[in-house]
Design brief:
This protein has about 150 residues and is α/β, with parallel strands linked by helices. The chain has a single domain, classed as Metalloproteases ("zincins"), catalytic domain (Collagenase (Catalytic Domain)), CATH 3.40.390. The chain has 6 helices and 4 strands; from the N terminus they run βαβαβαβααα. The chain has a 4-stranded mixed β-sheet. Helix 1 runs parallel beside helix 5, helix 4 packs across helix 5 and helix 5 crosses helix 6. The longest helix has 22 residues. It starts with a strand and ends with a helix.
Length: about 150
Amino acid sequence: MEVTLIDNQDKVKLDPDLTKEVAAYISDKFDRDSKSQLNIIFLDGKEIRKLNKKYRNIDSETDVLSFSYISDRDELNPGDDSYTIGEVFICPEVAWSNIKDQDKNWNLNLEIVLLMIHGILHIYDYDHLEEKGKVDMEGIQNSLISDIRRTFNL
């Protein structure tokens, strides 16, 4: 899968090389099709709040939003071999505030990784509204975080 990172915020400094490498690693766990594409977009609090209001009718900042285009593949890309499976929008400002409640072994890079995983899981129809889905999703997230911590020495 091809992953495109777009950093449309300047409030929180990200490590673009690490983020791109980890994003590709995560996405390959879900889809090894070289014709599929995933966009990960980093937004400031104001912009993610607008998206959250528009698409979820919640007028507040959030850490991650995701939009899946998998079910619309044929409609959006008729006759085209390449296709965008979805987009994950992440707010590094909210991610930064999330880590304040974590232990000393947690940092911004790990929080961004967690949000990428979380967003990708939603693209593939995982959800945490029901208890079973929440348990499944958290199990996958925790497994991938452990794998990434070992693989990338985070």
